[in-house]
Amino acid sequence: MALAQGAVSYPGKAIKIVVPFPPGGATDVMTRNIAQKLSDAWKQPVVVENRPGANGTIGADAVAKSPSDGYTYLAATIAHSANVTLFPNTPYQLQKDLRAAAILGLIPLVSVVHPGLPVRNLKELVSISKTQPLSGGSAGNGTAPHLTLELFKSVTGATILHIPYKGGAPAMTDLVGGQIEVIFVLLPECLPFVKLGKLRALAVTSDKRNPLLPDVPTTSESGVGGMEVTSWNGLMMPSGTRDDIVTKLNAEVARIIGMPDMKSRLIEYGYQPSPMSVGDAERYLKADIERWRKVIREANIKAD
User: Fold this and answer.
1) pLDDT at position 2, please?
2) Which of 64, 68, 109, 280 could bond 240 through an S-S bridge, CB–CB 3.0 to 4.6 Å?
3) Residue 123 falls inside a structural domain
4) 70 and 94 in one domain?
5) Which residues contact 256 (CB under 8 A, 6 or more apart)?
6) Which domain, by its residues, includes 172?
7) Phi and psi of 254, rounded to 5°?
């Protein structure tokens, strides 16, 4: 009875969502949209706090050490799956100290090249990589663009030098400027450049074509198997948080994502709205951790 009453009365005060990345990125935009809808529904302030650094570990550690009372969330991403292997000595343990509460949406990546590079598809990219030096940028070691680049090299034998940047924006600036040749980038971050013709999209990493880039084939259609990759955004809470609170948040997120205005907004941003139950979110996270553990170890990726 106490649990049921607790669920009814929750939340009774302001909620904080820690975004462990700088403002303005895909995770920040997604989180702020969800936060506003949660605030509207629950009649409580939902404050977004940016705590960037160390590929998302600084913000995650802060949430892991927060009271498990349901008032502090982590805006988690694929980076946190990778960090389990990349940063084995972090002051928190993702699967022990945090629990998955909801998956908000999945985001495909896009292989984009500078238009001056004479390639039109992934097979041509592989071929040219073996005849001239190519550089592939990313938002940093262990980020989704880096992991996907390493996976591409692993499954195709392409020879591309990884250049880590301190964030996605400077990497995109250098790609547009021709200082590097290729990036596997989150769709929302490259879409304006592709639409303006400043970058050429070769393939999307999802299992089907994206409505925002209908003429761009999937990696599978491009003849490259084993490259289905989607980044994700989710909410996690300290592991001791009560089940009824986690379930209530999960149900509210599913309702919000299903709202016509939110659904269309997320699709416009490049997301695939993908609400999951708490159990499905936990299983998704576990599988993602295992997948990237294999890629990181095989490619000998190190966190600098």
Assistant:
1) 45
2) 68
3) yes
4) yes
5) 34, 37, 38, 41, 262
6) 108-204
7) -60, -40
pLDDT in tens, 41-85: 999 999 999 999 888 999 999 999 999 999 999 999 999 999 999
- CA 101, CA 73: separation in Å to the nearest integer? 9
Q: Are residues 40 and 82 in the same domain?
A: yes
Instruction: Identify whether residues 199 and 115 lie together within a single domain.
Output: yes
174 C-beta neighbours (distance < 10 Å), count: 18
Distance (Å) of CA 77 to CA 20, 30, 173:
9, 11, 23
- Across the range 166-191, mean pLDDT stands at 91
Residues 31 and 114 in one domain: no
State mean pLDDT over 215-232.
Answer: 94
Torsion angle of C-alpha atoms 190, 83, 158, 155, degrees rounded to 10 = -110
Return d(Cα 77, Cα 157) in angstroms, integer: 28
State the CATH number of the domain containing residue 72.
3.40.190.150
Q: Are 66 and 115 found together in one domain?
A: no
Question: Are 201 and 112 in contact, with CB atoms under 8 Å apart?
Answer: yes
Q: Is residue 37 part of a domain?
A: yes
Q: How many domains does the chain have?
A: 2
Cα-based distances in Å from 44 to 6, 38, 47, 235: 16, 8, 10, 18
Strand partners, 182: 113, 136
With beta carbons less than 8 A apart as the criterion, state whether 171 and 26 touch: no
Q: What token pair was written down for 22?
A: 């700088």
Q: What pTM, to 2 d.p., does this model score?
A: 0.86
Give the CATH number of the domain where residue 125 resides. 3.40.190.10
Q: Which position has the token pair 């990546």?
A: 109
Cα gap 177→268, rounded to integer Å = 26
DSSP code at position 108: E
Residues 79 and 114 in one domain: no
Mark whether 21 and 99 lie in a shared domain: yes
The two three-digit tokens of residue 90, written as one number:
């972090």
- 81 and 97 belong to one structural domain: yes
pLDDT in tens, 76-102: 999 999 999 988 999 999 999 999 999
